[in-house]
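Hey forum,

I'm writing up a methods section and want to include a predicted complex as supplementary material. The small molecule is fe (ii) ion. I've pasted the protein sequence and the SMILES. Can someone with a working setup run it? I'll credit the forum in the acknowledgements.
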Amino acid sequence: MSIDTIHDLFEHGLEDIYHAEHQLVDALEDLEGNTEREEIASAFAEHREETRQQIDRLEEVFDMFGEPPEKEECEGIEGLIEEYEQFTAEDPDQEILDYHNMAAAEKTEHYEIAAYGNLIPLADQLGMDDAADLLEENLREEQDALDELKELTEQFEMEAIPAE
Ligand SMILES: [Fe+2]
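Reply by user p_vandermeer:
Happy to help. Structure tokens for the complex are below, copy them as they are.
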């Protein structure tokens, strides 16, 4: 598809994040399963539920936009997932994995925050105020998820991990 207009730019970005959110539902399940510390695992579970709602909101946005929900392969998130799989293939100790799982999730949040932050002005420009509100809700959830993970990272007690 050639991208020549604000309409095209919005559609491209929406299809990209729609695919990303679907990938993240599965990725968050893997992260939860790969995490031993309960509060970290439950943060992943909670954000997975939010991600399902974000997909519903995106479907509403597609509806307002007058297009069926379609996915455009999101190579950004795919790359992050691949990077994560390479890390787990090294079979790290559980403590290391718990810590790294937060880092991996935080990277995806940054991607999503950038994606929503760029879609909102396009929706505004297209006069789609209700769509912009839904995208704002997704953006807020991503920001909250990132803040929570950052806090858990800062609180993480590392004494079980050798320094060298
Ligand atoms: Fe999300």
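Some notes you might quote in the supplement: The longest helix spans residues 94-125. The pocket of fe (ii) ion is lined by residues 21, 24, 51, 54, 112, 142 (CB under 6 Å).
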